[in-house]
Amino acid sequence: MEQQRIARFTHAGVADAEVSVHPFATGDGLGLNLTRFRRNDCDDVVLLVHGLTTSSDMYIMPEHTNLVNHLHDAGFGDVWAVDLRISGRFPYNSEATRHDLDAIALHDHPAMLAELRRHIGDRRVHVISHCVGAISFSMALFAATVTGVTSLVCNSVSLTPRTPRWSKIKLGYGPALMEYVLGPCHLDPRYANAPLLTRGWMLAKAVAPFHRECGEPACHMLSFMWGGGKPIFTHAKMSPVTHGRLPDLFGACNVNYYRHLHAMVKAGRAVKRHPRDPRSAALPDDYLSRAASVTTPILFLTGDRNHVFTDSNIVCHRTLEKVTPGLHELAVLPGYGHQDPFMGAASDTEVFPQVVDFLKRKAG
Asked: What dihedral angle (degrees, nearest 10) is formed by the CA atoms of 182, 188, 189, 194?
């Protein structure tokens, strides 16, 4: 019998919890969402922040034990997941507007926490973040556009983005090539399903021969969009069900974000995209410049097979250890890549316990 398809943008993966959606607006006029998964009230609230083109869906996948259910079972009964402007649940990534990570740090995260606080009051907040969500939330924390965070978990990358050489080339030349030559202004893992001979379809066909590791076109496109010539996860860590529905879990990516990431990779740290832009005057030019004043403990997670941001979190932990010795922690995950620590089939036994241990030590 053919396996029943998992519905796109479903909440079916969260069991035994009250689910409610809480819309909020950013200062620059975008409508975003927080979703609350409440099994019971507790003193420590957990907020989950997704990466670029993924969404809150990465934390509530029905095909295996997901992070929300694991947190509930571990005693964290009030879990929230945000959908930022970079979420695949919104159309913003495929629009021509040139958003960057400064906008997320300046507008999305403060508005997100304000809405969260409106419901939970002054209870302790622990943030678990991934990819560009981890970069942008770290930027917000170190720029003090968000405050009152009890602990932070960053997976794969934070304030010292580093990439393989091939990724640096793509970050440098890809945005202009896409916008002015190939078109359109975004990349999409669904391009293999585009109409025959359209630009997206032809790009997917051109990419496929360089990714022989599997037969899933969306996986090939994601490797092209994010990987340094290799997959964004370790295939052995992923459920075949998850691998088969990658187009439902990843959306389009506006290539302008690559410009900001390229500037950071060149600088070796998170920097402001447009230092002279008065709209971002509240943000520091160098987000590490205020590191000594940050007292929130951070757990830096990374797979030892990370082909997207390589050793970024190892470097970030080492950098901050010189500024605030003993405050932050590092956990290197054997056999894991970039995306699979939170989306892997066995993450509930191989990764999540380390996260929960960190949260419990920082709670109370």
From this structure: -70
CA–CA distance, 82 with 113 (Å, rounded to integer) = 10
Going along the chain from its start, the domains and CATH numbers come out as 18-163+278-363 (3.40.50.1820), 165-254 (no CATH)
Do 257 and 171 meet the contact criterion of CB atoms below 8 Å apart? no
Q: Out of 222-226, 300-304, 339-343, which region has the weakest mean confidence (pLDDT)?
A: 222-226
CA 236 → CA 125, 242, 337, 343, 346, distances in Å? 33, 12, 10, 12, 10
Task: Dump pLDDT digits (tens) for 151-168.
Answer: 999 999 999 999 999 899
User: Could you tell me if 26 and 111 are in contact, meaning their C-beta atoms sit under 8 angstroms apart?
Assistant: yes
Residue-wise pLDDT for 20-61, tens only, equals 999 999 999 999 999 999 999 899 999 999 999 999 999 999
Asked if residue 283 lies in contact with residue 272, where contact means CB atoms within 8 angstroms, the answer is: yes
The pair of three-digit structure tokens given for residue 187, joined into one six-digit string: 């990349």
SS (H, E, C) the chain: CCCCCCCCCCCCCCCCCEEEEEEEECCCCCEEEEEEEECCCCCEEEEEECCCCCCHHHHCCCCCCCHHHHHHHCCCCEEEEEECCCCCCCCHHHCCCCCCHHHHHHHHHHHHHHHHHHHHCCCEEEEEEEHHHHHHHHHHHHHCCCCCCCEEEEECCCCCCCCCHHHHHHHHHHHHHHHHHHCCCEECCCHHHCCCCCHHHHHHHHHHHHCCCCCCHHHHHHHHHHCCCCCCCCHHHCCHHHHHCHHHHCCCEECHHHHHHHHHHHHCCCECCCCCCHHHCCCCCECCCCHHHCCCCEEEEEECCCCCCCCHHHHHHHHHHHHCCCCCEEEEECCCCCCHHHHCCCHHHHCHHHHHHHHHHHCC
